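Colleagues,

For the teaching module next term, I've prepared a clean inverse folding example: a structure given as tokens, and then the sequence designed for it. I'd like students to try predicting residues themselves before seeing the answer, so please don't circulate the second half yet.
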């Protein structure tokens, strides 16, 4: 009966596959004008002169906005480039905006803008950036954190691993580019934006234009992928609103693919120095993880790669250190398991190296260092069943048939390699609100100001409300992506289900109580005088447990009550006391690669992963999230790499032909499953979130498999054929 956990298809699936789901760029608005950004061609300096006269003469041009003629924004911040000054901090920074009647006219005019620059020295040498600034904290968590005595731990060690691992700059590249439509009515601003956080867009724009938050209405019904880059408000959103205000026209600004590289975030480059100390029998005595990652000149972003090191293994002496290297590049940001994807790559390859030094099975090494308590805080995990993941994944993969030595497994002329790693991701949630409304016709609405970024939240909201009210999911319409709805947090950090789900549950429980109370007060209801504790719901009906023959249904109840809808809303802040429990998901991932000995191409033939992520609310959607995560993990290991010309800070593969992402042909068989053990300490649903954990560990499992196949330890991602020659 309960739809929870069932493989219900996406309730918005039909809209998506028929093309009728409306994405933010697709709203048709009368009088719409088109904006195109002009971007800098130097990484650092000043705009000395800008000649826009030729651009202004192009037919159809409404305005060319630039520093000097652009409206002054009372809330402007250094981190965004919104034409408030003539400074250039990175290549392809927005420096002007052309508004025209058509997109083609705007493009043509943008190409006619002539800019002269006064160049300044640019900081573009990552290695010369050491030593660097201290990042303080990251989302309230300290960047540097140590416990025990690492030097003493290293003195006790009989084996030491000391290596540097690097990961490159990467760009998110969702299929849907960033897109904003802005429209003013007096001092009221309406925005359609491709965003992971409508409330964040609302707050930022209110601050920029110094208007009350209530004057900004943001909608976003579907997001065509975000991966973190749509989590914050970048320059173009503000520029669209600014252009709309200044031209007194609704304005649409959609980024083109090359513009997705630079002004809208990236995963920064990481340089990770890992030192592991262990006894001969494999017990870790010390871990030191020092991370250098780039940020920009205009804002600090910390890639928290050493955070997972704090929770993964039992080790008495741990030091985790982060340093930022400010460069003249666009500001980096959260990207697909930020910190954890890059950090688990380094730690889990180092663990593999340690296993080989010890001549020990890599899985055995993990089991020897298993921990049931958070090694830093010493409190237990809210729910951790990683042993079960290791053993099931190893079984399904056939790990016991592995021969330990590198270059010992073949399939014809192909070198075969097997590697494994641990996966982990924090379980978090944030306050969220929702409402549930029962309509007189027996259908219902469930609503929350959250975002559908592919996470399936339309479906999860439907399932949770339907389960609580014991109605068919088909009777529900889920509504989201509108700042007029009860507010919900950013859709990021794998937090959406664990945040919005409990709010929907609570609102539905309140609606249930209200409906029972109405029936109980109603002299005409068979449930007249009933006590709530004696009432059960089923199939749109209420009946008494003590007398099942006495039942009333929602439709007739509402018909007797003026045919008006009944609605309940709730705001919840779930969460755990961090002094009591540490909340993290875990998993085990095993990968098989085949390496062609002639051209050194690596193909991932098989991945087996087993996750311990709490309750999975929808087996079908969950599965596709895990598969997506694993694909991005493979991508981290083998494909993605933003090439910067370090002489001028220009990204030279700013397109999807040269920036490689895996396609179907690159991905072999992926076998995912979960333990499905609810974590009820985090929230009422027992779900910890599943969006990102698949990306973690996978990069290392693939890298370790490549070592097993070839005997070559590549410590700089991505593992491209040239590095295996
Ligand atoms: Mo995600 S990178 O937490 O949006």
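(Answer key — instructors only)
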């Amino acid at each position: 009966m309960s739809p929870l956990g069932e493989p219900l298809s996406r309730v918005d699936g039909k809209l998506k596959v028929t093309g009728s789901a409306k994405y933010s760029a697709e709203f048709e608005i009368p009088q719409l004008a088109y904006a195109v950004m002009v971007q800098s061609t130097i990484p650092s300096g000043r705009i000395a002169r800008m000649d826009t006269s030729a651009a202004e003469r192009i037919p159809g041009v409404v305005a060319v906005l630039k520093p000097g003629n652009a409206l002054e924004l009372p809330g402007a911040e250094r981190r965004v480039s919104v034409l408030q000054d003539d400074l250039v901090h990175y290549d392809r920074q927005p420096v002007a905006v052309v508004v025209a009647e058509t997109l083609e006219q705007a493009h043509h005019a943008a190409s006619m803008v002539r800019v002269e620059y006064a160049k300044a020295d640019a900081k573009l040498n990552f290695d010369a950036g050491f030593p660097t600034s201290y990042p303080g904290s990251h989302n309230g968590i300290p960047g540097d954190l140590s416990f025990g005595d690492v030097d003493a731990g290293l003195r006790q060690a009989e084996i030491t691993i000391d290596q540097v691992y690097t990961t490159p700059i990467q760009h998110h590249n969702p299929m849907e580019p960033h897109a904003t439509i802005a429209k003013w009515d007096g001092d009221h601003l309406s925005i359609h934006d491709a965003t992971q956080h409508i409330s964040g867009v609302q707050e930022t724009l209110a601050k920029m234009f110094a208007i009350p938050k209530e004057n900004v209405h943001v909608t976003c019904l579907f997001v065509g992928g975000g991966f973190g880059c749509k989590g914050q408000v970048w320059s173009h959103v503000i520029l669209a609103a600014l252009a709309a205000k200044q031209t007194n026209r609704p304005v649409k600004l959609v980024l083109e693919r090359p513009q997705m590289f630079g002004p809208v975030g990236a995963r920064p480059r990481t340089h990770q120095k890992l030192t592991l100390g262990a006894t001969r029998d494999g017990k870790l005595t010390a871990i030191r993880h020092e991370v250098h990652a780039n940020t920009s000149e205009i804002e600090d972003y910390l890639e928290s790669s050493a955070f997972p090191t704090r929770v993964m293994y039992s080790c008495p002496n741990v030091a985790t250190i982060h340093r930022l290297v400010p460069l003249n590049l666009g500001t980096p940001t959260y990207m697909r398991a930020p910190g954890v994807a890059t950090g688990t790559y380094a730690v889990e390859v180092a663990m593999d190296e340690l296993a080989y030094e010890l001549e020990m099975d890599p899985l055995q090494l993990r089991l020897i260092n298993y921990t049931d308590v958070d090694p830093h805080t010493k409190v237990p995990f809210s729910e951790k069943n990683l042993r079960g993941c290791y053993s099931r994944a190893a079984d399904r993969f056939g790990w016991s048939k592995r021969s330990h030595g590198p270059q010992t497994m073949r399939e014809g002329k192909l070198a075969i390699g097997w590697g494994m790693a641990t996966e982990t991701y924090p379980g978090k949630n944030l306050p969220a609100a929702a409402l549930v409304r029962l309509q007189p016709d027996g259908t219902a609405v469930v609503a929350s100001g959250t975002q559908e970024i592919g996470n399936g939240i339309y479906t999860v909201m439907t399932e949770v409300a339907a389960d609580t009210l014991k109605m068919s999911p088909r009777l529900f319409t889920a509504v989201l992506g509108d700042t007029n709805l009860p507010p919900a947090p950013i859709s990021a950090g794998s937090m959406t289900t664990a945040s919005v789900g409990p709010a929907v549950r609570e609102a539905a429980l309140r609606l249930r109580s209200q409906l029972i109370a109405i029936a109980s007060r109603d002299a005409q209801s068979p449930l007249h005088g009933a006590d709530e504790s004696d009432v059960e719901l089923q199939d749109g009906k209420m009946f008494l447990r003590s007398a099942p023959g006495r039942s009333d249904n929602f439709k007739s109840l509402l018909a007797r009550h003026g045919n008006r809808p009944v609605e309940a809303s709730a705001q919840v802040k779930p969460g755990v006391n961090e002094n009591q429990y540490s909340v993290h998901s875990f998993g085990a991932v095993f990968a098989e690669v085949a390496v062609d000995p002639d051209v050194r191409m690596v193909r991932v033939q098989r991945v087996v992963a087993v996750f311990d992520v709490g309750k999975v609310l929808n087996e079908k959607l969950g599965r596709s999230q895990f598969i997506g995560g694993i694909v991005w993990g493979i991508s981290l290991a083998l494909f993605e790499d933003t090439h910067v010309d370090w002489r001028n800070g220009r990204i030279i593969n700013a397109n999807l032909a040269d920036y490689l992402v895996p396609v179907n042909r690159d991905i072999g068989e992926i076998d995912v499953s979960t333990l499905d053990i609810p974590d009820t300490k985090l929230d009422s649903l027992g779900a910890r979130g599943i969006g990102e954990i698949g990306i973690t560990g996978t990069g290392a499992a693939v890298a370790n498999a490549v070592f097993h196949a070839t005997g070559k330890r590549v410590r700089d991602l991505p593992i491209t054929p040239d590095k295996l020659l």
